[in-house]
Each structure stands twice: as structure tokens, then as C-alpha cells.
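Checklist before submission:
- one chain only
- standard amino acids only
- sequence pasted in full

Submission:
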Amino acid sequence: MKTLYSLIVFIFIGTTASFGQVNLNEFQMSNNTSPSFLLLEETVTDIYTPENVKALALHVQSNFGESMAIEVAPYFFINPKSKNRTYYKYIGVYDDKGELKQNPFSGLNTTTISFAYLKKDYENIEGDSENKTFAIGARTTLIRFYNKKKVMDNATELANALSQLASPPMEILTMPQGPDKEEALKKFYLEKQKVDERFKKFQKTIKPIFKVDVAGAYSDLFTDNSVNSGTVNRLGAWLTGEFSLIINEDDEQSSTNNYINLLITSRYIEDGFNSTNGIDFSTNYYRDFGGKISMDLGKFSFAYEYINRNGSISSKRSVGNISFAINKDITLTGGFGKDFNTTDNLLTLFGINWGMNFGNSSASL
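Returned file contents:
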């Protein structure tokens, strides 16, 4: 009996400690590509703004082993044990002496740096061999605005849920050791499990009403697939704005918040990957403008995007894409449609995105 009693108390202490945390590990990964991949135009989606960034993310496209990007979020590695790193400070919403406020620049916490490798047969480079390309990119959220009341109401509900069974009732603690106390503790633990189930709804993703992301990337292509050969480069910078509207706000039974999102993007690209003989290269200049509409429905996300390209060459991208979250860390993505290329422009891509946080990625209330 003493062993069982000790085990129940041990489990209780562990679960109580975890209830005091909003664990960033539990939120669904949403950075389904990276700026370094996007510049190389080898992505399922060209328009995106991730919400819940993982400390480390790996992006792989359908030509496994020949295209890979690694994305790192420095926020999770800088002073990770600080007691000041709360979830609500992470998203920038807080209570200041009874007045709800938010820091619109808290999105800087989502800054990422990405590195990509791609082996690809570029349309504007003649030859039979694929070219090895390397890229580096970065992105961050310049500004974002949440529904402050919704965020803090969520925090209040969470605090109330935690207070319901913060500790075993005094009548249990003062009971003499024996079967009755053991049975009472068992029942108490079962109730704690119910609280745990209710707690899960507070791990739903709350998206900003509006946000603006900025990103940029630079890449080098080895013209002869050798380190001794010359290199040409491509660089770009872009802004993306996103409006999000929750569509199941009153559904307390749903395990996710479902959203409809409208995104608008504008970008500038200098493309040096252009040659007719593999020796002489020229630079093209592009100005892209486009939009995207998407729906987040639980584990699935459906979207359509259209981008108009003007400049040295005029073209269009019209792509539908879908993503499925296998779990909170792994997402499958697929895209089908017309890419920018003037020839061989049918886009069919499949990608796997794997993100991870670490034990110190929890943030207290």
C-alpha cells in the first residue's frame, strides 16, 4: 500500500508541476518551408507565415537526398532557463495593472535562419546535368496583433482549470493510512486526468488577427558542380501580410482552432541563374505580387495561391496545396499546379517537414 501511495503522490506532483506550464512543444508545427528553399523555387507553397516555430526544423522535398533545408530559431537557444520566458510574453500579450496590452513586435521571437541544399536542372541553364545550389535565408515577424481579450480569457480559463484540483483535498490528506486513503487518492488522480483533458484545449493555436513577415535569402550555384568552378547567385527579399479569422470560436468540443486566412505577398528577386551555353551568365530581375487563401481545419490545411511575375520575364504561378499534420512535429505537404517556368511548368511536389523543440522549450504562465 505504501508503495502505491508513494507512486500516486509522485505522479500527482509531476502532473501538478506540468500543469503550471504552457509547453511550446505541444503546439503544432507550422513552418512548412523556409526562405532558403523559397528563393530556389522548390517549394509546395511560395506564400506562408508560420505561427508556432520549432527550435529546429528539417524540410525535405520529393527528390529525397537532393533537396534539404534546415531552419533554426535562435530564440529557443538564448537564455532558455530564464524565468521571464512565459508563453504570454512569447506572443506579446500581458496584463498591466488590470489593463490588457500587447507588444506588436513580439514576433521577433519567431526569427529563423535557414540553410538549404538543392540539386536541380534549371530551365535557364542549358546542359544535361543538374546543378548543385546552396542558399541561406532568414525571416521574422515585423508586427503582429492578437485579439487581446481572447488570449487573456484563455489564460483565465486555464488558471481556473488548474485551481480546481491544485492539491488533494484536506480530508484526503488527513485520513489515516489505509485502504480508504488509497482509494480516495486513486479517485483524486482520475479527476486529475480529467483536468488534464480539459487542459489540452488551452494548447490550441491562437493566431494573430494580422501580422507582417519579412524574409530574404541568398544562394550560390556552382556552374560546373565543382568548388573550383565559378559561381553565380540569386537573391531576393519579400514582405507577406496575413489576416486570420477563427471559424469555430464557439465550438468548445473541438480540439483545434480552425481558421480561414488571407495572405498577400510582394517580393523582389535578382536571378543570376541564366545561361544559354553554361559559360556566360546574365541576371534577370523580377517583381512578384500575389495572394493566397487557406483554411486550417484540424490536422488538414487547404490552400490556393496565385503569384504574378513581371520584369525581365513575365510569368505566373498558380498552385493548390494541402498539408496534413501527422503529429505536432511532423507535417506532410503537397502541391499541384503551374509554376513560373515557361516550359515544363507543371508543378507536382511532395514534402516532409519535421520540427523539434527541446525540454527547455516550456514556458510558465
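Reviewer check: Helices lie at 2-19, 35-39, 87-91, 148-164, 170-173, 179-199.
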